[in-house]
Fold:
Amino acid sequence: MKNAVAIGAAAIAVSAAMLAAGFVSARQAADAGPPATRTAGKAPVMADAGRENIETVVRDYLLSNPELLLDVQEALQIKQEEAKKLAQSTTIRDAAKTLFEAEYDGVVGNPDGAFTVVEFFDYNCGYCKRALPDMEEMTATDPEVRFVLKEFPILGPDSQAAHVVSMAFRNLMPEKYDTFHRQLLGGAGRANEESAMKLALELGADEKALRAEMENPAIMQAFNETYELANRLAITGTPSYVVGEEVVFGALGRDVLEEKVANLRECGAAVC
Structure:
């Protein structure tokens, strides 16, 4: 309401300025005599004068009420946020299969769960490490929840190398991906090809087969599809989640995610 009043007041000021400018222009036109007696150069001069009058009134009004600029900025930000959310929900609907059912994504929890949380993560993201227990507790306590893990290496070459090993491991040993993911993300130190490879071998992977699978061009194609999807959803950091038709940015905690899932149960949307 405050924004509406402020914008309305600004509109009134502009309207008043336009009326004033129209009056001045009319007076100038009358003083100039009949059209036949006016020179061709008079019209631009009068138009300029009218514009100057408008600009002066608006400038003076805004200088006297500078708080209106903040109100207008706030209203603009709200409008932009609403437009972003609309674009995100449209993308989620249009790219639902890639987002929720891509064959290259790992799944933790019930693969057939009725409620899906999609997580974009990087193995070297500290906030992703802190958020790992949220996923573990939710999937342990709610048999209807499934987490889809979007491998989203954005934190440098080490991250990308670790994720390549992860993707190759999942392709060869999907039944152990859950364990691999938890241990690599939950481990100390920086994830890279060496640490990811060491873990994969400990879990029973054949090194020769794993290194061959790491050359599979489908892995980079999967990364590129995830980057494109993240860009369309305005996701630039990790962790980021998709629940229903809403994007949740940051490690906001288990309570926030559980509330979104509860809303999905109640009304079929992340926000009821």
Observations:
- Residues 168 and 215 are 9 Å apart (CA to CA).
- The first helix runs from residue 2 to 31.
- Strands lie at 106-109, 115-121, 145-151, 240-243, 246-249.
- Residues 2-65 form one domain.
